[in-house]
Amino acid sequence: MPAALLLAAVQASFRREAAAEVGPAEVLGRLNRQLYGLDQPDKFVCLLCGWCDVRSARLVYSNAGLPPAQLRRADGSWVLLEESGLLLGVHPDPEYREGGLQLHPGDILVCATDGLTEARRGDEMFGVERLRQVVDRHTHLRAARLCDALVQEVRSFASERGADDLTVVVLRQLSPSPRGAAPGSV
Fold first, then answer.
1. Which of 150, 42, 173, 169 lies closest to 103, judged by CA?
2. Which residues contact 115 (CB under 8 A, 6 or more apart)?
3. Plot region of 39 (φ>0 → left; ψ -120 to 50 → alpha; else → beta)
4. H or E stretch including 110?
5. Is 97 strand, coil or helix?
6. Is residue 178 pLDDT above 80, yes or no?
7. pLDDT at 128
8. Spatial separation of the C-alpha atoms in residues 144 and 79, rounded to whole Å
9. DSSP element (H, E) containing 2
10. Given the DSSP bridges, would you call strands 108-112 and 168-172 parallel, antiparallel or unpaired?
11. CA 16 remoteness from chain centre
12. Contact predicate 110/136, CB 8 Å
């Protein structure tokens, strides 16, 4: 119950901070100050905050403690969204940096908690490579179905059920980016 209450408070704070129209790094910084102010170091939160402008096909993000998101380009190459910062609530003033990139039609973004890549079968982890293989096999699926396929694959793989959290978000860029936007540009 305490974790559920903390999550509800974080969600409410996130909505309020996101409405302030500041960048993702500033949102994470504000949330961190609120959580750290609770003076409960055993209560922390992982969160990836991103703004995706559908019209310009631009993504700006900041990460607080989640594994790096994976971007599969339409050409089959992979990009790791490496900008990352400390978990929310464990330090009074960590630095959260923003990363950004231009999306193109057919690009697929996968954001997941470590419950996906660290799911285990004995000593073997599901891992990033297996995540990428699943996405590569299912690029024809809509984002929601691809998310379902990832969850199904990791549950079939794992020998232990419920050992860790499992949250997966999949986004697919459908519309073309504006003219003149080069791959990888911000």
1. 173
2. 154, 163, 164, 165, 166, 167
3. left
4. strand 108-112
5. coil
6. no
7. 97
8. 21
9. helix 2-18
10. antiparallel
11. 20
12. no
Mean pLDDT in residue range 160-173: 82
For the chain, how far is it from start to end, CA to CA, in angstroms?
41
DSSP 8-state symbol, 93 = S
pLDDT surpassing 90 at residue 111: yes
Beta bridge partners of 168: 112
* Cα(69)–Cα(61) distance, integer angstroms: 10
Q: What is the mean pLDDT of the chain?
A: 89
DSSP assignment of 121-180 equals ETTEE-HHHHHHHHHHHTTTS-HHHHHHHHHHHHHHH-SSTTSS---EEEEE--SPPPTT
Buried b or exposed e, range 21-36, using 16+ CB within 10 angstroms: eebbbbbbbbbbebbb
The upper half-sphere exposure of residue 105, i.e. CA atoms within 13 Å in the direction of its Cβ, equals: 6
3-state class (DSSP) for residue 115: helix
What pLDDT is recorded for position 100? 96
**Cα–Cα distance measured from residue 46 to residue 93, given in angstroms and rounded to the nearest whole number:** 16
